[in-house]
Amino acid sequence: MSPTSPPLDTESTLDPETHGGASVAAPDRRGLAVTIGVVAVCLAAAGAFGVWALRGGDGTSEGAVADDATGLHADHGGGDVLAGCDAEEYHHTMMMFDPLAADGLLESGCAWPYDATIVVDGGAEDPSIAAVYEPRRYAEIFDTIADGQYGMCAVASLAEERANGFVFGFRVPLNPAGCADGVPTFDVVIREYSTRAWRDTAAAAARSEVVAAGAGDAVVLGRWVVSLVGDDAAAVDAFAARLVGLGGVSISA
């Protein structure tokens, strides 16, 4: 309604001549008020549930997680944990954790790794891998997919054990010709690691897998080891080249 529009007359009926010749009764204001009240209560309840879920259910469990995580992160050299960071990560993990949520956690400033129980000790750095160990946004991967006009068949969180420095990761099946039939020609598998030592250790394992399979590629980029799995050699090579263009290092050779 514009500022100059006349006020609606809720008591009158609509003009029969301009509405199909039928007289339409004015709405029941009492029924409308009841409906609005019910909707408001439902929205308030939904908001309260969202806050409860984000905070871990109750103040006691949230506080315990935050306190324990602060000490463990300090031991990891990650500094103090912002209040609620671990609880937020747990919330996303238990619900639908996806690349967008991962990028949101990166923006939050939470100490890395977000979960203080993640292994950081161990692994071995490889000086021959020149890729800088740094946080990267998963949006870069999806921008690369869009720029190359790849058909994206799905996005799935990796259900792998959090061991040997693995924090989380995602599988993205692609098809350069489009994915209308749901059949990819290769998979982009991104795994993110807690330290450079664990990232480089995982890179060595990924290299061995590529060599054993005789197909695919692996690229180290930031905290990630990106495995390109499939027999579509041309598509794999093209995608690997795009990741190298972002600052990644191919380790398949």
Task: Give a short summary of the structure.
The chain is 41% helix and 14% strand. By secondary structure, the protein is α+β, with helices and mostly antiparallel strands.
Report what the structure shows.
The protein contains seven helices and seven strands. With 253 residues, the chain is of the alpha+beta class. The protein has three domains: 25-52; 55-108, no CATH class; 139-250, no CATH class. The N and C termini lie far apart (66 Å). Mean pLDDT is 74; it is low at 1-82.
Instruction: Describe the largest sheet.
Output: 7 strands, antiparallel
Using only C-alpha atoms, the radius of gyration works out to 26 Å
Judged by helices, strands and strand pairing, the structural class is alpha+beta
Per the principal axes of the C-alpha atoms, what is the gross shape?
globular
Low-confidence stretches: 1-82
Reading the helices and strands in chain order gives: HHHHHEEEEHEEHE
What is the β-strand count?
7
- The helix content is 40-55%
Give the amount of beta strand, in percent.
5-15%
Total number of domains: 3
Number of helices: 7
Distance between the termini: 66 Å
Mean pLDDT: 74
Record the SSE blueprint:
Layout lengths: L28 H26 L4 H18 L8 H10 L4 H10 L30 H9 L3 E2 L3 E2 L8 E10 L10 E8 L2 H18 L3 E5 L2 E6 L3 H13 L3 E2 L3
Antiparallel strand pairs: 1-3, 2-3, 3-4, 4-6, 5-6, 5-7
